[in-house]
Design goal:
616 residues; alpha+beta; Glutamine Phosphoribosylpyrophosphate, subunit 1, domain 1; Rossmann fold; six-stranded antiparallel β-sheet; 17 strands
């Protein structure tokens, strides 16, 4: 787990050093640099030492130094790949570094290399003989990878701050990306907040030819529901899920430094912790949880119950949310690109707490996306009925009626969920999911940006996903939406930034190649039968996880934005700089702080944008 940076073309060692310094938090244990003697190719690497502490330094090359790599991530099947490559005649210099598999794997398989990898990664390979740079990002986007191309410069890095640190890179704010930010609370790939700068999409590679200054971008994998014609029985499938989940945990125990597990007491993290205790003596397993004095946001008793049942070594810290609020601006200022997921703060605090004892933590992220764990899955059937029978006039009346309900600051309160659902029902099913989660309604966005905004434009990525296969059911399409869109650009981005700001590596158990390939072939009703979410996961884990945990109601990892934003100093300050209407923002601030309206999602995203490193 590290940070990478590099470029081809204009620039010098000073640019490379500044780029590496911008991501020093991603690799506090060391740094490495490479400059090609014949071409203006520069690589930098910041290291967080996890595997092969003695020999794993980067950038790393093959024997004759014709292939070089700078790499961020973990390849969990690297030992198997090493054996395969050695059988083909490749000779390894390191003891057990997963990095070296990439240089020899490139020699053997070329652009097919990413398909061979089971892990999380963002890397760039320089091939001196072919005069090419090859960038690749893992299947789901656990690890970030940014790139930009301008006259006489191709530049890449683990974070946007890398790109900005290069003296020759010039850019302005990407207006469309800002619209997408207020439509989603994150900026979806391949967009970034800067013009002519991009995220490499998950499951994609980029080949840059130095001879022709041309590039090719191709997908090598994408999560797609593809139900088997003769699927296994529900019971057989559950047994297979349990086996594959335990196998995934076993693969992710690969570490030469202390390793633990996040434990919230929910189904996903409890499954991971239980599998870990099934593979190691429970007393040797370190679990980590934070709790809050505010009851509607606290899950610590469930985590404690699960840890006590497993017999693991549990670490718990109870926080006062109002005290935790004091670090908001510091955390947000270290984000190089804004992302408005309110759970960033508790995730950061959890990573900070875990880092006091371990360098690696296993997580249950992606369980909700793969197994239909979110509330919107429960809303799909009622929404279809409502949408088919409710006249527009009555729909508008329902929205007005719900607006009269008292506004609650509790986590996922009824009034909040009703307002979100009704806002989505202004549109057809293809937009329900993104609009249900949108910080800003389309009509408000028109006023904020002082110009008409096309729905097809701001929700283009979500619409493209929905329309790819018109024959799929709503549940399967919603699964693909969350897994291909929300998971990489929100959840995994949040976890990556929160962990790496604390020098911690987080590993998602549910994103193992074998496990996800099994899940995507299962019928929708195995995951959500109209009443029970994560049905097959709960069946699969019933031997290892208590029923009290499997049956408990889902609670998100949130913060009291509704109440906090009533007294956080808010201003429309940077609005003109971004081409936004300051009066519209002032109106939102007044409505929330003085009139009792609920504008928490927009105001939080606006606050994040103002405080993020993007505006520094």
């Amino acid at each position: 787990m590290c940070g990478i940076a590099g470029f081809f073309g204009s620039g010098d060692q000073g640019d490379l050093t500044r780029m590496a310094q911008a991501i020093v938090h991603r690799g506090p244990d060391g740094e490495g640099y490479y400059q090609d003697p014949t071409q203006p190719v520069f690589f930098a690497h910041r290291r967080l030492s996890i595997v092969d502490l003695a020999d794993g330094y980067q950038p790393m090359s093959n024997e004759d130094k014709s292939v070089w790599v700078t790499y961020n991530g973990e390849i969990y099947n690297h030992l198997e790949l090493r054996q395969e490559l050695e059988a083909k005649g490749h000779r390894f210099a390191t003891n057990h570094s997963d990095t070296e598999v990439l240089v020899h794997g490139w020699e053997e398989w070329g652009t097919e290399l990413p398909l061979k990898l089971n892990g999380m990664f963002g890397f760039c390979i320089w091939d001196r003989n072919k005069n090419t740079l090859f960038l690749a990002r893992d299947r789901f986007g656990e690890k970030p990878l940014f790139w930009a191309e301008q006259k006489d410069l191709f530049v890449f890095g683990s974070e946007l701050s890398c790109i900005k640190a290069h003296s020759k890179f010039k850019s302005s704010f990407n207006r469309l990306a800002l619209k997408k930010y207020f439509a989603h609370a994150f900026i979806p790939a391949p967009n970034t907040a800067l013009e002519n700068c991009y995220k490499l999409k998950p499951g994609h590679w980029l080949l840059f030819d130095l001879k022709t200054n041309s590039k090719t971008i191709e997908p090598y994998w994408q999560f797609r529901i593809d139900v088997s014609q003769n699927p296994p029985s529900f019971e057989e499938a559950a047994e297979e899920i349990e086996r594959l989940l335990v196998q995934s945990v076993k693969r992710r125990l690969m570490s030469d430094v202390p390793l633990g597990v996040f434990l919230s007491g929910g189904v996903d993290s409890s499954s991971v912790a239980a599998a870990m205790c099934n593979l190691r003596p429970p007393e040797s397993v370190q679990s980590f949880a934070i709790g809050f004095e505010e009851k509607s946001y606290d899950e610590s008793k469930h985590a404690r119950f699960m840890a006590d049942g497993l017999g693991c070594s549990h670490h718990e810290k109870i926080l006062d949310l109002n005290q935790a609020r004091s670090i908001i601006d510091d955390v947000l200022s270290r984000l190089d690109e804004p992302m408005g997921d309110g759970s960033l703060l508790p995730t950061y605090l959890l990573c900070q707490f875990a880092r006091q004892n371990v360098t690696v933590a296993l997580s249950g992220d992606a369980g909700d996306e793969l197994f239909a764990g979110y509330d919107p899955f429960k809303a799909l059937a009622p929404a279809r009925l409502y949408h088919s029978v409710m006249p527009n006039a009555l729909h508008r009346g329902m929205k007005s009626l719900v607006e009269l309900m008292p506004k609650s600051s509790k986590n996922m309160s009824l009034d909040f969920k009703l307002r979100r659902v009704l806002m989505g029902l202004d549109y057809g099913p293809e937009l329900w999911n993104p609009v249900w989660m949108a910080p800003l309604a389309k009509s408000d966005m028109d006023e904020l940006f002082n110009e008409p905004t096309a729905v097809e434009e701001i929700y283009s990525e979500a619409l493209e996903l929905w329309r790819e296969d018109p024959n799929k059911g709503t549940v399967d399409k919603t699964l693909e939406y969350f897994t291909n869109f929300y998971l990489p650009d929100d959840i995994l981005t949040k976890v990556d930034r929160a962990a790496m700001l604390n020098g911690l590596e987080a590993r998602s158990i549910f994103l193992d190649n074998d496990l996800t390939d099994s899940i995507r072939h299962l019928p929708a009703e195995y995951k959500f039968d109209g009443k029970t979410t994560k049905k097959i996961l709960k069946k699969a884990m019933q031997r290892l996880v208590p029923q009290d945990i499997l049956n408990r109601r889902k609670k998100g990892f949130g913060i009291p934005l509704m109440s906090w934003l009533k007294d956080i100093p808010l201003t429309s300050g940077n609005a003109p700089q971004l081409g936004l209407d300051p009066q519209k923002i002032d109106h939102f601030i007044q409505a929330h702080q003085e009139e009792g309206k609920d504008q928490r999602l927009f105001l939080w995203n606006w606050h994040v944008l103002q405080k993020s490193g993007l505006l520094s």
